[in-house]
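Readers outside the structure-tokenisation community will struggle with the description of the input data as it stands. For illustration, here is how one protein appears when written out as sequence plus structure tokens:
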Amino acid sequence: VNNLGRILVNKTFFLVVALLLVGLGSGAVLAQDSQMTFFITSAGSGNGADLGGLEGADRHCQALAASVGAGDK
């Protein structure tokens, strides 16, 4: 009975220590910056890679960004 009690105390002690360590580690979560810096899309222009040069490509990308609330970036 003495050995069984000692085993239970040891297991309980290690369980409590493990739970405390997990709890302390999860409390240090920092807020993430939610500012969008880029996005990826699969929406094409309908003409393959013909976007009308650099100006057309920029216009297409700006329109896509504006449609998801990330215009003027």
Q: What stands out?
A: The longest helix spans residues 2-26.
